[in-house]
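Box 3.1. Reading complex inputs
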Amino acid sequence: MKRILIVDDEPHVIRVVRLALERNGYLVDAAANGKQALEYLEEQHPDLIITDIDMPQMNGKDLCMEINSSLPDRTFHIFVLTARAELEHRKWASAIPNLDFMEKPVSIRRLVSRLDTYFADVQLSDKQECQTAS
Amino acid sequence: MQPNQKLSVWKKERLGLIMIMASLAVITVTAGLLFSNQRQAEEAHIRKQGINLVKLMSRMSFDQVVPGAGQQGVLSVLQLNHENTSFSYLVVVDKNGRQLAELSSPGVIAPATPLPSSPTTWLGEKTLNLAGDGREVTEFHAPLFRNGLLAGHVRLGYFKPGFGLDLEQMPFLATLALPIFLLTPLFYFLVRREVRPLKKVNSQLDELVERGNLNRMEITATGELHEFMTRFNGFVETAQNKIHKLESERTSLETSTKLLTYKRSRIDSVLQSLPDAVMVLDESGAVSLANSRFSTLLGVSPADVVEKKPVEWCDNQDVVAFLASCTGKAARGFNVESFEYTPSGTPEKTISISPYPLFSPKDPAQLLGTLVLFRDVTAVNLAKQSSGAFVAHVAHELKSPLNVIAMYSETLQSDDGANDDFRIEASNVIHDETERLSQLIGNILSITKIEMGSISIERKRVKLRDLLQDTYDTCARNARGRDLKILADLPREISPVAVDKDMLRIAINNLLTNAIKYTDPGGEVTLAAEETENNVRISVKDNGIGIAPDEQEKVFNKFYRSENEETQSRTGHGLGLSLAREIIQLHHGTLTLSSAIGEGSEFIIELRKEADLLKQAV
């Protein structure tokens, strides 16, 4: 089972996303802001992080930068949810590997299918890597 | 009397004096001539008489002249003639000079004189002086013969006629002098009469010179003076016309000068009070005109700029290059595009430079120079930026609740939608989020309307307690799950106030939402109300992060969001407080703030009671 961390200050968003992802066979953990997410990462190792940008205490941008610098060898992917898919975000994000944007409002169905596709791809490439290695 | 005035009196009367002197001179000369003539005639008469008499006596016999004792001689006859005043003496002497007979005027002694020695000088005339008074005497002498032989001489003396006046001559002199004396004043008055117009002319000329009164001379005169007056008056008229013409020309010149000065100062004052710095560059690229805004905008006095090229007063090379590109020949082809730059030393300032070619109004093909406007666009740029940021904030604020609504409704359609508990939850969430959206949109619309001045508040008598309670309930419900104590301290009765219910609700709601947003979990937000004598006081108090003193006024500015990190981390559109204050001001109330960092903030609304408003209106 894949473990996913959702970081959002909007409890309603967490509630709905958790509901949908759990129904589709994911393990879901949640944090209300960047700070909480970093605390979580000290103990847990999710397979993927979904984060909002505008959050109190520590926003999505700072969270991503912090993860990038403190966990340079991370393997998990980050999806950034933003209502403002603007160039200013693309700029800082381009320096961080394994990061994608998802624009708000997010359709639950699309989110699930995107996660499914992502993990399928990962599995496939892992297999290919194993085959080439052997 | 001043000496020169005395002199002028003499001068004025000199004509009369001259005439008196002249008449006296004429009388003197005439009398002199007459007397001299009379003397000559008398002398001639005496000579004739004397010569005749001595010749006559010379021809007489000696005895006849010198009679013997007891006989009467010629001398006795001649004695009868003594009444002749000119007669002085008659003496007969012998040839040795001894006096033989004498006849003389009283008091006269015949003077001694040498006798003529030769016969040629026996008959003659000589002038002698009498002994005593020294009077001059003309003496005629002739020889006396006895028996053909010289026996003696006859000497006859006559007084020379004198120059002195005697009484006899006085009537004659008076007859001569009187007409002259009588004629003199007559001539004098005649001359005066002739001269009088000239005097008038003189005094009028004096007046002309001293006072500058150029008038026709109304002087009656005859003859040449009349002609002179006519010509002079003609000259005066011509001069008057010329002077009038000159004066009217001068007046119109003065008027047009004043008009020009006025127009010029009007244009100048317009130019000086323009909000932008204005400069005109001539063909050579030098500044020919600059207004006073230069000192405030660019820190250069206009006097330091005029007649100089930009390179001499501007240290920004880009500006110099830009100004060079729109002057001289380059000006014909340049595009009227603005250029923005930040002057060195004032990093927060942005100045826009806009050039416009100046064509001659008479000949559009002739380029006179370039008009350059310097405008401080700092505020405009800031407004553009903040309004852009505002739109971005608003978009974000709109998208967040929309996102939640979209997610819930989508989930409702999925298998989870069948769950009754979820359906109730979803409908509540969707309702709340819709409420949040409509509140935000309401805020945006209200503030836009207020800013545009197109809002009119509808004041109605409102039960303030109900309105406050209602607003409190909504906010408290929305803040559920935030771990905050939301409290209400409202008296049971509050005096009625006349307010726009919807607007006041927005204001109080914004204050509460703001307080909730900036208060950390565990904190407290209180909505309270109390009455003073004239006012109703509503306060929203929190123990949140607080606002720094230098920001306490700025928080009411539209778009303003604190630089504080704590604030930055919280969502907000910088609109709520601005709108709240505008609404309270529309109600003629006040919204004030007291706050300290880390201790919390208190926003206080003061509204006038209805009774107080009525009192004021009456």
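In summary: The mean pLDDT of chain B is 82.
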